[in-house]
Amino acid sequence: MRTITVWNATRDNVIAAKVGLAHTTFSRMRGLLGRSGLESGEGIWIWPCNGVHTVGMAFSIDVVGLDRDHRVAKLWRRLAPLRITSVSFTVRSVLELSAGKIQEAGIQIGDVIRMEGHE
């Protein structure tokens, strides 16, 4: 899977340097299933997507919901296995990150997120 770097343009910091792209039907369905965890600098960007689940996962994740302009519209912290997020009509894509990354990176609603290495 191709990876990109994701940074918070509002706070001028890198969120994750190894983020996989999930934009095909198969890659979106698979997501993080089958993984045993995420390192601090890893994640996955899923689009289009307006909500996620952790059914079948063995670890918790942080989920950042982005609107069409890649502005943070929703935050789900430490989403445990066997959970489902709400569906948000303003969210167009999501970043799935290691649990605790939202707090560690200081991500807040309204922040602008940039993807480096994505056409």
UniProtKB/TrEMBL annotation:
InterPro entries in UniProt: DUF192, Saro_0823-like_sf
Pfam families membership: DUF192
Highest taxon listed in the record's lineage: Bacteria
UniProt-recorded name of the protein: DUF192 domain-containing protein
